[in-house]
């Protein structure tokens, strides 16, 4: 029973993972985390009932929640790396360590709690209620606004008078990319990919920076090459460094 329900949970989690990765640039991770909290609580509630159906549902929901939280953790730290000077590998490593530290604590506490239940000191319902309480308290203590989930709104500084305004330096490469993008009708996302290609960035770097899938980046690059009438990144760099539109 356990293997079958775990398999079902993993299939549901795989579908959820695919949707989350494909639409990761448009998904509010904070909202996804709040929604995934619901099956987590129901999974804990099901453990309090002594029935085959409740156990099966608990295993299934647990598999979905664990896989979903792993994906959210990775995407969270990828976004956080874009706003800090830390590498994606470093931050994702911290997130994975934190995730599996909780798993380790659960495995260590499991036999101890099982022994207490068998001795009649406590029961499954009490353990489930305690876990739900711990989850609720941890949710209340967690910050509700984080720069890695949503963009921070910076205060608008007082603008200087026209006579005091200082000229803003414009990056020639950015100006050139903007002109080419406008002339060839690149979309907003294609402009972002194009700007990185024009700086010689590789496709894996673009995937990590813009949080896009491999196929999505490949599609954008293909469309950019077609619109600019080039066939390689080197031809694109030559076009950017030239004068023609």
UniProtKB/TrEMBL annotation:
User: Which keywords does this Swiss-Prot/TrEMBL entry list?
Assistant: DNA-binding, Membrane, Transcription, Transcription regulation, Transmembrane, Transmembrane helix
Q: Name one Pfam family in it.
A: GerE
GO MF term list: DNA binding
Supply the CDD domains for this chain. LuxR_C_like (cd06170)
Q: Which domain of life is it from?
A: Bacteria
Q: Which residues form the HTH luxR-type domain?
A: 179-244
Q: Which GO terms describe its biological process?
A: regulation of DNA-templated transcription
Question: Where do the TM regions start and end?
Answer: 6-25, 32-50, 56-78, 90-110, 122-142
Family annotation (PANTHER family): DNA-BINDING TRANSCRIPTIONAL ACTIVATOR DEVR_DOSR
Q: What is this protein called?
A: HTH luxR-type domain-containing protein
- Taxonomic lineage of this organism? Bacteria, Bacillati, Actinomycetota, Coriobacteriia, Eggerthellales
């Amino acid at each position: 029973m356990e293997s079958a329900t775990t398999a079902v949970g993993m299939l549901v989690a795989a579908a959820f993972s695919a949707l989350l990765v494909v639409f990761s640039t448009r998904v509010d991770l904070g909202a996804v985390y709040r929604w995934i909290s619901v099956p987590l609580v129901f999974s804990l509630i099901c453990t309090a009932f002594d029935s085959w159906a409740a156990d099966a549902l608990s295993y299934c929901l647990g598999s979905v929640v664990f896989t979903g939280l792993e994906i959210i953790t990775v995407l969270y730290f990828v976004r956080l790396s874009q706003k800090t000077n830390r590498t994606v590998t470093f931050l994702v490593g911290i997130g994975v360590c934190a995730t599996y530290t909780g798993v380790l604590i659960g495995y260590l506490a499991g036999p101890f709690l099982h022994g207490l239940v068998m001795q009649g000191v406590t029961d499954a319902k009490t353990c489930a209620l305690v876990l739900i309480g711990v989850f609720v308290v941890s949710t209340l203590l967690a910050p509700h606004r984080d720069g890695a989930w949503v963009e921070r709104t910076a205060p608008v500084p007082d603008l200087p008078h026209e006579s005091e305004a200082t000229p803003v330096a414009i990056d020639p490469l950015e100006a050139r990319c903007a002109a080419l993008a406008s002339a060839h009708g690149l979309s907003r996302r294609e402009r972002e990919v194009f700007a990185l290609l024009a700086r010689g960035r590789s496709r894996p770097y673009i995937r990590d920076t813009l949080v896009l899938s491999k196929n999505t980046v490949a599609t954008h690059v293909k469309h950019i090459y077609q619109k600019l009438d080039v066939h390689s990144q080197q031809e694109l760099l030559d076009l950017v460094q030239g004068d023609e539109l």
